Amino acid sequence: MSAFKYVIIGLAVGVTFVCNAQTKLPPAWQSSLVRISDEGTLMYVPDEDGNTIPDFSRVGYHHGDKSIPVYPAVKEVFPAEEGDSGALIQQAIDEVARRSPDENGHRGTILLKRGVYKIAGTIVIHTSGIVLKGEGDNINETRLIATGKERRSLIQVKGRGDMQEVLGTRVKITDDFVPVGSHSFCVSSTGGFKAGDRVIVYRPGTQEWIHAIKMDQIVERKGTRQWTPQEYNLAFEREIVKVKGNRIFIDNPVVMQMDKRFGGGEVYTYRFDGRISEVGVSDICFESEFEDYEDLEHAWIAVKLDKAENCWVKNITARYFAYSAVSCERSAKNVSVIDCRCLESKSLITGGYRYSFNNWGQQNLFMNCQATEGRHDYVTGAQVCGPNVFYNCTASQTFADIGPHHRWAIGTLYDNIVTDGEINVQDRGQMGSGHGWAGVTQVVWNCRVKRAAVQSPWTSGKNYCIGLKGEKYPGHFTDRPDGIWEGRNEINIFPRSLYMAQLMARQNK
After folding, report:
1. pLDDT tens digits, residue range 333-360?
2. What is the per-residue pLDDT for 508?
3. 234 with 136: CB under 8 angstroms?
4. Largest CA distance in the chain
5. 6 pLDDT exceeds 80?
6. Which CATH class is domain 164-271?
7. What DSSP line would sit under 377-417, residue for residue?
């Protein structure tokens, strides 16, 4: 019997004992869609089209297969005695960037000693293998203050260049239909592919698909844009794990149906030579100067990542920023954001501000985070290609909702989120510039909310709400198809966390 089976069976026995012998709580219950079998294995139950809830476990730093490393410091920095400290930190980063990386890709850790660092500009890390670490995230430990009135990121982790398709490698997916949850599909030729290749699983946008989900029929108001096909050419980053005959097997699952009716799909290899990796930011308190509660002319984001993979932000506190504590941009992949806080944002309480933990990238993990006075605290943007996970996070004094924000995010798990506000997955219609359907394959698992709306789009997949504690309400439109709901306001869901159960199952096979 595997270690996972022993753990799961032990947990089940323990939960049953506690429920029956001590607290008199109802027995643990399981979803009909993902459940632990009597043998202790994780089972996925397909719907009528073969779709399953996907495996979300391969997200974050090195897909969760490696612990975030701890390295000794090679450089120490102290605050400037007077004035700006930004140049001192940037000089240290540039010095370490000239070092050769070790076998793990690490160049060096820079330790920012306890004290107050006033910074008028942006600190930039554009080389792999650099860790920026403080001596703690309390205000009396390592404290970086963004001074002045410029809208900017205080720390920017960013590589160079762009993703490039390897010409001549693109082939058609030949299956008429590839369901959500699949880890393989057939292609017209596997001659150019092998295990270890990085590939794009490409799903084209088509007018037929736009029409089927009625996003060419958004009720107009000033500034509304109907969706266009070219905006929805979706590129999911994957790695080939096996090639067998004309079938390709990939590491992360398909999170949106690929249907011949709507253009099917393609696969090609890619390069991203300028993308950086093994960069960490940890144990720092970030603050922004501001003039008043609704000030918009001050620092925007504490830590921003783009064109970066296998990086982390850990144990930071961000106060008073107008937008985010951490923002993972479009080309940020396999980033872990762990034990971070976004507190007391300062801005107008309206569109475009207070997105406490913001994600546009792929295969990213936000875990054990806290937000106060935000609007969209755990949020994805438009055309966000999953999987992505928000796990075990809290939001209080909220001014808007958690969830996919607009224009089709794909494959996100909201797992054990606790908020005094809302989680919504819905057709947002004419909101903004025509937000429309916010997303598909959005899974809300064992969350606690004031209220929630979870709807499924007209076609191309479903959204799920399992084990929610809180009110269910109709959402912006009351005539949209309902999502898949199970066990609302029932306690003792098992497993308590879908993400952790999937991670344990995969790592203990």
Report:
1. 999 999 999 999 999 999 899 999 999 9
2. 85
3. no
4. 67
5. no
6. mainly beta
7. SEEE-TT-EEEEEEES-EEES-SSEEEE-SS-EEEEEEES-
Closest C-alpha to 118, from 140, 88, 156, 150? 88
Helix (H) or strand (E) holding 4: helix 3-17
Residue 489 tokens, joined: 């306001």
CA–CA gap between residue 359 and residue 389 (Å, rounded):
10
Query: Would you state the pLDDT for residue 451?
Result: 98
Each residue's pLDDT tens digit, 55-86:
999 999 999 999 999 999 999 999 999 999 99
Q: Which CATH code is given to the segment(s) 69-162+272-363? A: 2.160.20.10
Cα–Cα distance, 169 to 66 (Å, whole number):
31
Above 90 in pLDDT, residue 5? no
Helix (H) or strand (E) holding 452: strand 448-454
Total count of residues recorded for the chain: 509
Reference 416, options 133, 167, 56; nearest CA is: 56
Contact call for residues 144 and 111 (beta carbons, < 8 A)? no
DSSP string, 215-278: TT-PPP-TT-----GGGG-EEEEEEEEEEETTEEEESS---S-EEGGGT--EEEEEE-TT-EES
Structure tokens at 74: 């090679």
| CA distance linking residue 396 with residue 454, whole number of Å | 21
H helices then E strands: how many in the chain?
4, 40
- Residue of 370, 363, 362, 360 whose CA lies nearest to 338: 370
Q: What does DSSP say about strands 266-271 and 198-203: parallel, antiparallel, or unpaired?
A: antiparallel
d(CA 391, CA 416): 6
Query: Beta strand pairing status for 308-319 and 484-486?
Result: unpaired
Domain boundaries of the chain, sorted by first residue:
69-162+272-363, 164-271
SS3 assignment for 158-226: ECCCCCEECCCCCEEECCCEECCCCCEEEECCCCCCCCCCEEEEEECCCHHHHHHCCCCCCCCCCCCCC
User: Locate tokens 């794909």: which residue?
Assistant: 410
DSSP state for residue 19 in the 8-state scheme: I
Yes or no: say if 362 and 251 are a contact pair by the CB < 8 Å rule.
no
